[in-house]
Amino acid sequence: MREEIRQLRGLLENQLAHLAWADLKRRQPLSTAVMRRLSGMELDSSLIDRISIATADARNEDHAWQLALEELSAGLPVADHDFLDEGGIVALLGSTGVGKTTSVAKLAARYVLRHGQRHVALVTTDSYRIGAHEQLMTYGRLLGIPVQVASDHKGLRSALNSLADKRLVLIDTAGMSQRDVRLSEQFSTLAGSGIPLRTLLVLSATGHRSVVDETIRAFSGVSLDGAILTKVDEAASLGGVLSAVIRQQLPLMFIANGQRVPEDMHPARAAKLVQQAAQLAESNELPGESAMAERFGGVRANVHV
Q1: How far is the CA of 200 from the CAs of 104, 188, 224, in angstroms?
Q2: Strands 168-172 and 265-267
Q3: 106-160 tens-digit pLDDT
Q4: Residues 189-241: pLDDT tens digits?
Q5: How far is Cα 217 from Cα 122, in angstroms, rounded to an integer?
Q6: Cα separations (Å) of 258 from 98, 201, 205, 255?
């Protein structure tokens, strides 16, 4: 009996969702057309629903799409300045394989090109991966800047004190899964140094939205000042990661779209990133009527059976 009731409930909800979606299409054809295109970008449903409201007064479908992209750009948190010009001590955090060490090298190279070699240094706290130090040491030799190794909070404090004359110190931390039990040790190492520093989370554009969400929450064990988005050139879609940073309100500071140092790193620009996300979605097949009804019809119908 319970199973039959559950099946009947599901059937009724599905029918009401399809009716609600058909009614919405009839009343708001431009908004629903935009919702379909935004769905092709793989954005979060609640975000799509919110953005579509901004297209209510559009003149035509092209104008509605322009308004939607502008609304998405306005909601995307990006830094309004280049923190490299401010200097200080900056630690990069992130999961294994997101391109954290390469990002450290790119940031250091950008700084060297602007301000010279004398004012920047690198520190690594990665004592887990075999050969982790060597990679950063190689970058340091190529850039002509010092690199120090710190295995715990005391070593980090000592290293940072010895580099007090540097305008910018970049810390490369160990790459760990968002579920790694050792993550708290890494947070303790940074906090235990007793020296004020900023932290940036390195995120891969190829990550699934749920994984990016989980990663941001896990690394929020320390106060995050912003994020660097890597592997943009490898991503098939950017909607998932954009949805995550909007939901978590984590400002993007830099975008990395290749391996070249430092050419393939640029300050984050909301409009440019949104345009790139839209262009990637052009090759995707748009969701059909049934998928749209199931995704948005129930919300609009406010089904409570």
Answers
A1: 11, 16, 6
A2: unpaired
A3: 999 999 999 999 999 999 987 665 566 788 899 999 999 999 998 888 888 899 9
A4: 777 677 888 999 999 999 888 889 888 988 887 889 999 999 999 999 999 99
A5: 27
A6: 12, 18, 12, 10
- Cβ neighbours, 10 Å, residue 155: 17
Q: Confirm if 10 and 3 have CB atoms less than 8 A apart.
A: no
Scanning the chain, the segments in alpha helix (DSSP H) are: 2-27, 29-40, 45-53, 61-75, 100-115, 132-143, 153-162, 183-192, 209-219, 239-248, 270-281, 289-292, 298-301
Name the DSSP class of 78.
Answer: B
Find tokens 């990016």 and name the residue: 212
- Give the strand pairing for 252-256 and 265-267: antiparallel
Q: How many CB atoms lie within 10 A of CB 43?
A: 25
φ and ψ at residue 228, rounded to 5 degrees: -115, 130
Q: How far apart are CA 137 and CA 149, in angstroms?
A: 10
Q: In the chain, what are the domains? A: 2-77+286-301 (no CATH), 83-268 (3.40.50.300)
CA pair distance 253, 225, nearest whole angstrom: 9
Cα separation of the two ends of the chain = 17
Supply φ then ψ for residue 204, to 5 degrees.
Answer: -90, 135
Residues 42 and 48: their CA atoms lie apart, in Å, by 9
C-beta neighbour count of 127 within 10 angstroms: 14
Provide the pLDDT for residue 253. Answer: 95
pTM of the predicted protein model: 0.86
